[in-house]
Design a protein that fits this description.
Elements lengths: L1 E6 L9 H7 L4 E9 H4 L8 H18 L6 E5 L1 H11 L2 E7 L4 H16 L3 E5 L21 H11 L2 H4 L41 H5 L1 H4 L12 H5 L5 H11 L1 H19 L22 H9 L5 H13 L4 H14 L4 H11 L5 H12 L14 H8 L4 H6 L15 H17 L2
Parallel strand pairs: 1-2, 1-4, 2-3, 4-5
The structure holds flavin-adenine dinucleotide.
GO biological process, one term: response to light stimulus
Protein name: Deoxyribodipyrimidine photolyase
Keywords: Chromophore, FAD, Flavoprotein, Lyase
Protein backbone atom coordinates (compact mmCIF):
# COMPACT_ATOMS: atom_id res chain seq x y z
CA UNK A 1 0.00 0.00 0.00
CA UNK A 2 0.83 3.66 -0.28
CA UNK A 3 0.89 6.30 2.44
CA UNK A 4 0.05 9.89 1.56
CA UNK A 5 1.76 12.76 3.38
CA UNK A 6 -0.73 15.60 3.16
CA UNK A 7 1.08 18.94 3.68
CA UNK A 8 -1.03 21.88 4.85
CA UNK A 9 0.41 24.40 7.31
CA UNK A 10 3.70 22.51 7.67
CA UNK A 11 5.52 23.25 4.45
CA UNK A 12 8.89 21.76 5.32
CA UNK A 13 10.68 18.41 5.23
CA UNK A 14 12.80 18.89 8.36
CA UNK A 15 11.40 18.14 11.81
CA UNK A 16 7.92 17.41 10.49
CA UNK A 17 5.95 15.10 12.79
CA UNK A 18 3.45 13.56 10.38
CA UNK A 19 6.07 13.20 7.67
CA UNK A 20 8.39 11.37 10.04
CA UNK A 21 5.64 8.92 10.97
CA UNK A 22 4.63 8.40 7.36
CA UNK A 23 8.20 7.61 6.33
CA UNK A 24 8.52 5.13 9.18
CA UNK A 25 5.23 3.39 8.41
CA UNK A 26 6.84 0.81 6.12
CA UNK A 27 4.83 2.13 3.19
CA UNK A 28 6.07 4.23 0.31
CA UNK A 29 5.16 7.86 0.84
CA UNK A 30 3.43 10.04 -1.70
CA UNK A 31 3.83 13.76 -0.82
CA UNK A 32 0.71 15.81 -1.53
CA UNK A 33 -0.42 19.42 -1.38
CA UNK A 34 -3.93 20.55 -2.31
CA UNK A 35 -4.73 24.06 -3.47
CA UNK A 36 -8.13 23.98 -1.83
CA UNK A 37 -10.64 25.82 -3.99
CA UNK A 38 -12.96 26.16 -0.98
CA UNK A 39 -10.31 28.54 0.39
CA UNK A 40 -8.98 30.05 -2.86
CA UNK A 41 -12.45 30.97 -4.13
CA UNK A 42 -13.07 33.00 -0.99
CA UNK A 43 -10.03 35.19 -1.54
CA UNK A 44 -11.24 38.23 -3.44
CA UNK A 45 -7.76 39.49 -4.29
CA UNK A 46 -6.01 37.77 -7.19
CA UNK A 47 -2.75 39.27 -5.93
CA UNK A 48 -3.08 37.56 -2.54
CA UNK A 49 0.56 37.27 -1.48
CA UNK A 50 -0.13 34.35 0.84
CA UNK A 51 -1.00 32.21 -2.16
CA UNK A 52 2.23 33.41 -3.75
CA UNK A 53 4.13 32.49 -0.59
CA UNK A 54 2.64 28.99 -0.58
CA UNK A 55 3.47 28.51 -4.24
CA UNK A 56 7.10 29.50 -3.63
CA UNK A 57 7.35 27.07 -0.73
CA UNK A 58 5.88 24.29 -2.87
CA UNK A 59 8.59 24.93 -5.44
CA UNK A 60 11.22 24.63 -2.76
CA UNK A 61 9.68 21.43 -1.36
CA UNK A 62 9.39 19.99 -4.82
CA UNK A 63 13.03 20.57 -5.69
CA UNK A 64 14.08 19.00 -2.39
CA UNK A 65 11.88 16.01 -3.20
CA UNK A 66 13.26 15.80 -6.74
CA UNK A 67 16.68 15.41 -5.15
CA UNK A 68 15.24 12.38 -3.34
CA UNK A 69 13.85 10.87 -6.55
CA UNK A 70 10.37 11.90 -5.66
CA UNK A 71 8.00 14.66 -6.55
CA UNK A 72 5.41 16.78 -4.80
CA UNK A 73 1.91 16.08 -6.08
CA UNK A 74 0.11 19.41 -6.22
CA UNK A 75 -3.59 19.15 -6.98
CA UNK A 76 -6.20 21.88 -7.21
CA UNK A 77 -9.81 21.34 -6.19
CA UNK A 78 -12.00 20.48 -3.24
CA UNK A 79 -10.18 18.05 -0.94
CA UNK A 80 -12.91 15.38 -1.26
CA UNK A 81 -12.64 15.44 -5.04
CA UNK A 82 -8.86 15.27 -4.91
CA UNK A 83 -8.86 12.30 -2.55
CA UNK A 84 -11.54 10.52 -4.49
CA UNK A 85 -9.34 10.78 -7.61
CA UNK A 86 -6.19 9.76 -5.73
CA UNK A 87 -7.89 6.70 -4.28
CA UNK A 88 -8.53 5.54 -7.82
CA UNK A 89 -4.95 6.21 -8.93
CA UNK A 90 -3.04 4.65 -6.02
CA UNK A 91 -3.59 1.82 -3.51
CA UNK A 92 -3.74 4.25 -0.58
CA UNK A 93 -3.84 2.70 2.88
CA UNK A 94 -3.19 5.73 5.06
CA UNK A 95 -3.04 9.51 4.95
CA UNK A 96 -0.66 11.19 7.39
CA UNK A 97 -1.16 14.82 8.29
CA UNK A 98 -0.51 17.39 11.02
CA UNK A 99 -3.44 18.73 13.00
CA UNK A 100 -4.96 22.11 12.18
CA UNK A 101 -7.25 23.61 14.81
CA UNK A 102 -9.24 26.09 12.71
CA UNK A 103 -13.00 25.56 12.35
CA UNK A 104 -12.93 24.89 8.61
CA UNK A 105 -9.99 22.50 8.94
CA UNK A 106 -11.76 20.45 11.59
CA UNK A 107 -14.83 19.97 9.39
CA UNK A 108 -12.70 19.21 6.33
CA UNK A 109 -10.63 16.61 8.16
CA UNK A 110 -13.73 14.91 9.59
CA UNK A 111 -15.13 14.54 6.06
CA UNK A 112 -11.86 13.20 4.65
CA UNK A 113 -11.54 10.76 7.54
CA UNK A 114 -15.01 9.32 6.88
CA UNK A 115 -14.31 9.13 3.20
CA UNK A 116 -11.02 7.29 3.70
CA UNK A 117 -12.60 4.86 6.12
CA UNK A 118 -15.23 4.00 3.55
CA UNK A 119 -12.32 3.11 1.24
CA UNK A 120 -10.60 1.05 3.94
CA UNK A 121 -7.89 3.59 4.54
CA UNK A 122 -7.14 5.70 7.62
CA UNK A 123 -6.44 9.34 8.39
CA UNK A 124 -3.65 9.65 10.96
CA UNK A 125 -3.16 13.09 12.49
CA UNK A 126 -0.30 14.47 14.59
CA UNK A 127 0.52 17.43 16.78
CA UNK A 128 3.15 19.52 15.03
CA UNK A 129 1.98 23.11 14.89
CA UNK A 130 2.17 23.80 18.64
CA UNK A 131 4.07 22.53 21.65
CA UNK A 132 0.97 21.78 23.73
CA UNK A 133 -2.49 21.39 22.27
CA UNK A 134 -6.10 21.11 23.39
CA UNK A 135 -6.13 19.90 26.99
CA UNK A 136 -2.46 19.12 27.49
CA UNK A 137 -1.92 22.13 29.76
CA UNK A 138 -4.87 22.54 32.12
CA UNK A 139 -5.55 23.89 35.59
CA UNK A 140 -5.20 21.59 38.57
CA UNK A 141 -8.97 21.04 38.50
CA UNK A 142 -8.71 19.75 34.93
CA UNK A 143 -10.33 22.76 33.26
CA UNK A 144 -8.60 24.75 30.54
CA UNK A 145 -6.93 28.02 31.46
CA UNK A 146 -8.49 31.28 30.37
CA UNK A 147 -5.79 33.56 31.80
CA UNK A 148 -2.40 33.71 30.13
CA UNK A 149 0.10 34.12 32.99
CA UNK A 150 -0.80 30.99 34.99
CA UNK A 151 -1.12 29.10 31.70
CA UNK A 152 2.38 30.12 30.65
CA UNK A 153 3.77 29.14 34.05
CA UNK A 154 2.26 25.67 33.80
CA UNK A 155 3.33 25.42 30.15
CA UNK A 156 6.94 26.04 31.15
CA UNK A 157 6.72 23.63 34.04
CA UNK A 158 5.40 20.84 31.83
CA UNK A 159 7.94 21.37 29.07
CA UNK A 160 10.57 18.66 28.83
CA UNK A 161 13.64 18.72 26.58
CA UNK A 162 12.44 15.59 24.76
CA UNK A 163 9.40 17.50 23.52
CA UNK A 164 11.64 19.86 21.60
CA UNK A 165 13.77 17.20 19.94
CA UNK A 166 13.43 17.41 16.17
CA UNK A 167 11.98 14.42 14.29
CA UNK A 168 14.89 13.01 12.25
CA UNK A 169 13.08 12.89 8.94
CA UNK A 170 16.39 12.95 7.06
CA UNK A 171 17.18 9.35 8.11
CA UNK A 172 14.19 7.93 6.26
CA UNK A 173 14.04 9.91 3.07
CA UNK A 174 14.66 6.74 1.06
CA UNK A 175 11.02 5.85 1.65
CA UNK A 176 9.43 8.44 -0.62
CA UNK A 177 7.55 7.01 -3.56
CA UNK A 178 9.57 7.58 -6.68
CA UNK A 179 7.52 9.62 -9.06
CA UNK A 180 8.12 11.30 -12.34
CA UNK A 181 8.80 14.99 -11.95
CA UNK A 182 5.67 17.05 -12.42
CA UNK A 183 6.03 20.80 -12.21
CA UNK A 184 4.31 22.78 -9.46
CA UNK A 185 1.38 24.68 -11.01
CA UNK A 186 2.14 28.31 -11.74
CA UNK A 187 0.28 31.07 -9.89
CA UNK A 188 -1.40 32.07 -13.15
CA UNK A 189 -2.72 28.56 -13.69
CA UNK A 190 -4.65 28.75 -10.43
CA UNK A 191 -5.90 32.26 -11.19
CA UNK A 192 -3.42 34.33 -9.15
CA UNK A 193 -0.72 36.82 -9.96
CA UNK A 194 2.68 37.50 -8.47
CA UNK A 195 3.85 40.73 -6.84
CA UNK A 196 7.42 41.91 -6.91
CA UNK A 197 7.72 42.17 -3.12
CA UNK A 198 10.05 39.91 -1.17
CA UNK A 199 8.98 37.90 1.87
CA UNK A 200 10.71 37.96 5.26
CA UNK A 201 13.49 35.39 5.58
CA UNK A 202 12.96 32.23 7.59
CA UNK A 203 16.24 32.09 9.46
CA UNK A 204 15.69 33.36 13.01
CA UNK A 205 18.01 36.26 13.82
CA UNK A 206 19.69 35.29 17.12
CA UNK A 207 21.05 38.73 17.85
CA UNK A 208 17.71 40.40 17.25
CA UNK A 209 15.93 37.86 19.45
CA UNK A 210 18.49 38.45 22.19
CA UNK A 211 17.50 42.15 22.23
CA UNK A 212 13.81 41.42 21.75
CA UNK A 213 12.66 42.52 25.21
CA UNK A 214 14.12 46.02 24.80
CA UNK A 215 13.16 46.66 21.20
CA UNK A 216 9.95 44.86 20.44
CA UNK A 217 7.59 47.66 21.47
CA UNK A 218 8.91 50.31 19.09
CA UNK A 219 7.44 50.14 15.60
CA UNK A 220 10.18 52.45 14.29
CA UNK A 221 12.81 49.81 15.08
CA UNK A 222 13.08 46.49 13.22
CA UNK A 223 12.98 44.75 16.59
CA UNK A 224 10.64 41.80 16.08
CA UNK A 225 11.47 38.56 14.32
CA UNK A 226 8.97 38.75 11.41
CA UNK A 227 8.66 35.00 11.57
CA UNK A 228 4.85 35.10 11.74
CA UNK A 229 4.33 33.98 8.16
CA UNK A 230 6.80 31.13 8.59
CA UNK A 231 5.10 29.93 11.75
CA UNK A 232 1.75 30.21 10.05
CA UNK A 233 2.74 28.03 7.10
CA UNK A 234 5.13 25.83 9.02
CA UNK A 235 8.19 26.70 6.98
CA UNK A 236 9.96 26.81 10.33
CA UNK A 237 9.50 24.31 13.16
CA UNK A 238 8.04 25.66 16.40
CA UNK A 239 10.22 23.20 18.36
CA UNK A 240 13.33 24.67 16.83
CA UNK A 241 12.22 28.22 17.58
CA UNK A 242 11.24 27.45 21.17
CA UNK A 243 14.66 25.85 21.71
CA UNK A 244 16.31 29.04 20.49
CA UNK A 245 14.02 31.25 22.58
CA UNK A 246 14.86 29.27 25.70
CA UNK A 247 18.53 29.92 25.16
CA UNK A 248 18.26 33.54 24.21
CA UNK A 249 15.24 35.51 25.43
CA UNK A 250 12.41 34.69 27.81
CA UNK A 251 10.13 37.49 26.57
CA UNK A 252 10.34 36.02 23.10
CA UNK A 253 9.50 32.61 24.51
CA UNK A 254 6.41 34.13 26.13
CA UNK A 255 5.19 35.40 22.77
CA UNK A 256 5.49 31.90 21.35
CA UNK A 257 3.46 30.69 24.32
CA UNK A 258 0.75 33.27 23.49
CA UNK A 259 0.52 31.53 20.15
CA UNK A 260 -0.08 28.16 21.82
CA UNK A 261 -2.50 29.85 24.23
CA UNK A 262 -4.79 31.19 21.51
CA UNK A 263 -4.73 27.87 19.64
CA UNK A 264 -5.70 26.20 22.90
CA UNK A 265 -8.55 28.67 23.50
CA UNK A 266 -9.91 28.07 20.02
CA UNK A 267 -9.76 24.31 20.49
CA UNK A 268 -11.47 24.37 23.89
CA UNK A 269 -14.04 27.11 23.27
CA UNK A 270 -15.46 26.40 19.80
CA UNK A 271 -17.95 29.29 20.15
CA UNK A 272 -14.95 31.58 19.60
CA UNK A 273 -14.50 29.99 16.18
CA UNK A 274 -18.15 30.69 15.53
CA UNK A 275 -18.02 34.47 15.72
CA UNK A 276 -19.00 34.72 19.40
CA UNK A 277 -17.42 36.94 22.03
CA UNK A 278 -15.50 34.94 24.61
CA UNK A 279 -17.26 36.98 27.30
CA UNK A 280 -20.78 36.66 26.02
CA UNK A 281 -22.19 39.84 27.58
CA UNK A 282 -19.97 41.78 25.15
CA UNK A 283 -22.25 40.60 22.38
CA UNK A 284 -24.82 43.03 23.81
CA UNK A 285 -22.77 46.06 22.80
CA UNK A 286 -24.71 48.36 20.46
CA UNK A 287 -22.01 48.97 17.86
CA UNK A 288 -22.36 52.09 15.71
CA UNK A 289 -20.88 50.35 12.65
CA UNK A 290 -20.57 53.51 10.57
CA UNK A 291 -19.41 52.42 7.10
CA UNK A 292 -17.69 55.73 6.24
CA UNK A 293 -15.70 55.67 9.43
CA UNK A 294 -14.78 52.05 8.81
CA UNK A 295 -13.56 52.95 5.31
CA UNK A 296 -11.48 55.79 6.74
CA UNK A 297 -9.95 53.42 9.27
CA UNK A 298 -9.12 50.87 6.56
CA UNK A 299 -7.50 53.51 4.38
CA UNK A 300 -5.50 55.09 7.22
CA UNK A 301 -7.42 58.38 7.13
CA UNK A 302 -8.65 58.79 10.70
CA UNK A 303 -6.50 61.81 11.51
CA UNK A 304 -4.78 59.89 14.32
CA UNK A 305 -1.22 59.44 13.04
CA UNK A 306 -0.29 56.21 14.81
CA UNK A 307 -3.54 54.55 13.74
CA UNK A 308 -3.15 55.75 10.17
CA UNK A 309 0.52 54.80 9.94
CA UNK A 310 -0.38 51.28 11.07
CA UNK A 311 -3.14 50.86 8.53
CA UNK A 312 -0.90 52.20 5.75
CA UNK A 313 1.82 49.75 6.75
CA UNK A 314 -0.70 46.91 6.66
CA UNK A 315 -2.11 47.93 3.28
CA UNK A 316 1.31 48.38 1.73
CA UNK A 317 3.15 45.38 3.16
CA UNK A 318 0.78 42.83 4.71
CA UNK A 319 2.52 43.37 8.04
CA UNK A 320 1.76 45.58 11.03
CA UNK A 321 3.82 45.91 14.15
CA UNK A 322 2.20 44.29 17.22
CA UNK A 323 2.05 47.51 19.27
CA UNK A 324 0.27 49.21 16.39
CA UNK A 325 -2.07 46.25 15.87
CA UNK A 326 -3.19 46.79 19.45
CA UNK A 327 -3.69 50.53 18.95
CA UNK A 328 -5.51 50.33 15.60
CA UNK A 329 -7.76 47.53 16.84
CA UNK A 330 -8.60 49.34 20.05
CA UNK A 331 -9.32 52.51 18.09
CA UNK A 332 -11.79 50.75 15.80
CA UNK A 333 -13.70 49.07 18.63
CA UNK A 334 -13.55 51.72 21.30
CA UNK A 335 -13.16 55.10 19.58
CA UNK A 336 -15.38 54.31 16.61
CA UNK A 337 -17.60 51.68 18.26
CA UNK A 338 -17.31 49.42 15.24
CA UNK A 339 -17.80 45.70 15.81
CA UNK A 340 -14.43 43.99 16.28
CA UNK A 341 -15.51 41.36 13.76
CA UNK A 342 -15.25 43.97 10.99
CA UNK A 343 -11.67 44.65 11.92
CA UNK A 344 -10.93 40.98 12.38
CA UNK A 345 -12.15 40.32 8.83
CA UNK A 346 -10.09 43.18 7.41
CA UNK A 347 -6.90 41.94 9.09
CA UNK A 348 -7.71 38.43 7.87
CA UNK A 349 -7.70 39.69 4.31
CA UNK A 350 -4.50 41.67 4.64
CA UNK A 351 -2.08 40.05 7.10
CA UNK A 352 0.59 37.78 5.64
CA UNK A 353 0.86 36.09 9.03
CA UNK A 354 -2.94 35.83 9.34
CA UNK A 355 -3.91 33.07 11.67
CA UNK A 356 -7.48 32.54 12.84
CA UNK A 357 -6.66 31.86 16.49
CA UNK A 358 -4.13 34.67 17.05
CA UNK A 359 -6.10 37.21 15.04
CA UNK A 360 -9.35 36.45 16.84
CA UNK A 361 -7.49 36.44 20.15
CA UNK A 362 -5.87 39.80 19.39
CA UNK A 363 -9.13 41.39 18.32
CA UNK A 364 -11.09 40.13 21.29
CA UNK A 365 -8.26 41.28 23.54
CA UNK A 366 -8.51 44.78 22.06
CA UNK A 367 -12.32 44.84 22.20
CA UNK A 368 -12.22 43.71 25.82
CA UNK A 369 -14.43 40.72 25.05
CA UNK A 370 -11.67 38.10 25.07
CA UNK A 371 -10.20 35.87 27.70
CA UNK A 372 -7.59 37.75 29.67
CA UNK A 373 -8.43 40.89 27.70
CA UNK A 374 -7.67 44.53 28.33
CA UNK A 375 -10.38 45.74 30.75
CA UNK A 376 -13.03 47.69 28.89
CA UNK A 377 -12.46 50.91 30.79
CA UNK A 378 -8.81 51.02 29.79
CA UNK A 379 -8.89 52.91 26.52
CA UNK A 380 -5.66 53.53 24.65
CA UNK A 381 -5.00 57.18 23.93
CA UNK A 382 -3.50 57.00 20.43
CA UNK A 383 -1.58 60.25 20.85
CA UNK A 384 0.04 59.11 24.10
CA UNK A 385 0.81 55.71 22.59
CA UNK A 386 2.59 57.47 19.73
CA UNK A 387 4.57 59.63 22.14
CA UNK A 388 5.64 56.64 24.16
CA UNK A 389 6.40 54.11 21.46
CA UNK A 390 7.36 56.30 18.51
CA UNK A 391 8.95 59.19 20.41
CA UNK A 392 10.88 60.57 17.44
CA UNK A 393 8.02 59.97 15.01
CA UNK A 394 10.20 57.75 12.81
CA UNK A 395 7.45 55.23 12.15
CA UNK A 396 4.70 57.79 11.69
CA UNK A 397 6.66 59.97 9.28
CA UNK A 398 7.69 56.95 7.27
CA UNK A 399 4.10 55.94 6.59
CA UNK A 400 2.53 59.40 6.51
CA UNK A 401 4.77 61.55 4.35
CA UNK A 402 1.95 64.11 3.92
CA UNK A 403 2.10 64.90 7.63
CA UNK A 404 4.80 67.46 6.85
CA UNK A 405 2.62 69.38 4.39
CA UNK A 406 -1.10 69.80 3.77
CA UNK A 407 -3.84 67.29 3.22
CA UNK A 408 -3.66 65.23 6.38
CA UNK A 409 -7.22 64.84 7.76
CA UNK A 410 -8.56 66.29 11.02
CA UNK A 411 -9.24 63.70 13.75
CA UNK A 412 -12.32 61.69 12.82
CA UNK A 413 -13.57 61.95 16.40
CA UNK A 414 -12.50 63.81 19.51
CA UNK A 415 -10.61 61.54 21.88
CA UNK A 416 -12.35 62.57 25.13
CA UNK A 417 -15.77 62.44 23.52
CA UNK A 418 -15.10 59.00 22.04
CA UNK A 419 -13.81 57.76 25.36
CA UNK A 420 -17.00 58.74 27.22
CA UNK A 421 -19.21 57.35 24.46
CA UNK A 422 -17.36 54.06 24.61
CA UNK A 423 -17.62 53.76 28.38
CA UNK A 424 -21.36 54.33 28.20
CA UNK A 425 -21.93 51.78 25.44
CA UNK A 426 -19.81 49.15 27.17
CA UNK A 427 -21.36 49.75 30.58
CA UNK A 428 -24.85 49.47 29.16
CA UNK A 429 -23.99 46.13 27.55
CA UNK A 430 -22.25 44.64 30.52
CA UNK A 431 -24.91 45.70 33.04
CA UNK A 432 -27.61 44.05 30.97
CA UNK A 433 -26.77 40.63 32.37
P1 LIG B 1 7.46 38.53 17.09
O1 LIG B 1 7.19 39.66 17.98
O2 LIG B 1 8.84 38.36 16.59
O3 LIG B 1 6.96 37.21 17.77
C1 LIG B 1 7.34 35.90 17.31
C2 LIG B 1 6.13 35.05 17.07
O4 LIG B 1 5.40 34.85 18.28
C3 LIG B 1 5.13 35.66 16.12
O5 LIG B 1 5.51 35.46 14.79
C4 LIG B 1 3.86 34.91 16.50
O6 LIG B 1 3.81 33.64 15.93
C5 LIG B 1 4.01 34.76 18.00
N1 LIG B 1 3.31 35.87 18.67
C6 LIG B 1 3.84 37.06 19.04
N2 LIG B 1 2.92 37.80 19.67
C7 LIG B 1 1.78 37.08 19.69
C8 LIG B 1 0.48 37.30 20.22
N3 LIG B 1 0.15 38.42 20.86
N4 LIG B 1 -0.44 36.32 20.05
C9 LIG B 1 -0.13 35.18 19.41
N5 LIG B 1 1.08 34.92 18.91
C10 LIG B 1 2.02 35.85 19.05
N6 LIG B 1 -0.40 37.06 15.14
C11 LIG B 1 -0.44 36.16 14.15
O7 LIG B 1 0.44 35.31 14.05
N7 LIG B 1 -1.49 36.16 13.25
C12 LIG B 1 -2.49 37.06 13.31
O8 LIG B 1 -3.40 37.02 12.48
C13 LIG B 1 -2.44 38.05 14.33
N8 LIG B 1 -3.41 38.99 14.42
C14 LIG B 1 -3.36 39.91 15.44
C15 LIG B 1 -4.40 40.85 15.55
C16 LIG B 1 -4.39 41.79 16.59
C17 LIG B 1 -5.53 42.77 16.70
C18 LIG B 1 -3.33 41.79 17.51
C19 LIG B 1 -3.30 42.80 18.62
C20 LIG B 1 -2.31 40.86 17.40
C21 LIG B 1 -2.30 39.91 16.38
N9 LIG B 1 -1.26 38.95 16.25
C22 LIG B 1 -1.35 38.01 15.25
C23 LIG B 1 -0.17 38.86 17.26
C24 LIG B 1 1.11 39.66 16.92
O9 LIG B 1 0.79 40.98 16.64
C25 LIG B 1 1.89 39.06 15.74
O10 LIG B 1 2.12 37.68 15.97
C26 LIG B 1 3.24 39.72 15.55
O11 LIG B 1 3.11 41.11 15.41
C27 LIG B 1 3.93 39.15 14.32
O12 LIG B 1 5.16 39.78 14.09
P2 LIG B 1 6.54 39.02 14.32
O13 LIG B 1 6.52 37.73 13.57
O14 LIG B 1 7.65 39.97 14.05
O15 LIG B 1 6.41 38.68 15.85
Amino acid sequence: GIAVMWFRRDLRLDDNTALYHALRSGMQVLPLFIFDTNILDDLGDRHDRRVEFIQLQLHRLNSQLNGLNSNLQVRTGKPEEVFSALLKEYPIKAVFTNRDYEPYAILRDARIKAMLEAAEAVLLTYKDHVIFENREVVKDDGNPYTVFTPYSRKWKKQLEPAMLRGWPVEKYTGNFLSLKADAVPTLESIGFRASAMPFPGKEPDRVLIRHYSDQRDYPGIAGTSRLGIHLRFGTISIRRLVTLAQQVNDTYLNELIWRDFYQMILANYPAVGNGKAFKREYDNIRWRNNQHEFDAWCAGLTGYPLVDAGMRELNATGFMHNRVRMVTASFLCKHLLIDWRWGEAYFAKKLLDYDFASNNGGWQWAAGSGCDAAPYFRIFNPALQAKKFDPDGVYIRHWLPELEGFGYPEPIVNHEFARERCLEAYKAAINQR
